Sequence to fold (199 residues):
Amino acid sequence: MSAASATVIPFEASRRVSNLPVDPMFLDRWSPRAMSPEPIAERDVQTLFEAARWAPSGGNQQPWKFVYADSESALGRVRQVLVDGNRVWADKAPLLAVLLAHVNDEGERNDWAGFDSGAAWMSLALQARKLGLFAHAMGGFHEEKVYEVLGVDPKEWKPMVVIAVGRPGDAAVLPPKLQTRERPSERRPLAEAAIRIEG
Fold:
């Protein structure tokens, strides 16, 4: 068995099991780091953001914006905002998107912008799997660099995550430390995540 075949985990072998009958799409979604640099078709790129567009939001304010790059020159600009620990793998992703939350609109603060933007991210992540893609959201980025590279107003917008999207790649090219993490993670018990108030 080659090193590549030993480290790449086929989807069937990595399937997670839920204790209750939730839709398989929730178990199917995970965040790999090994991504193929193969370009993503423009229609698929637009479909990702169309799915995100339909996410729910308070007062239907839709306070999110995805600023994305899928050409080599534009990708080079967005890569600059990532910390080195993420660049080591995310530089291979054919699509990088910065998710911004509109936290202040002409002096009116939106305290729910981050929450609503998270819903848009999940919509994108689930749609990615429907297209045979994976999406991996990263909190490891330089916030001030985002404002510099994208030219957005820090008084109005807050960067939430940078998202890498791509097809599954060869985990053998990852640093050894990341290879050991290249599998779907489990979740803590339901009893710890949802607690009924008695009485």
Notes: The first helix runs from residue 3 to 7. The chain is about 35% helix and 20% strand. The chain has a mean pLDDT of 91.
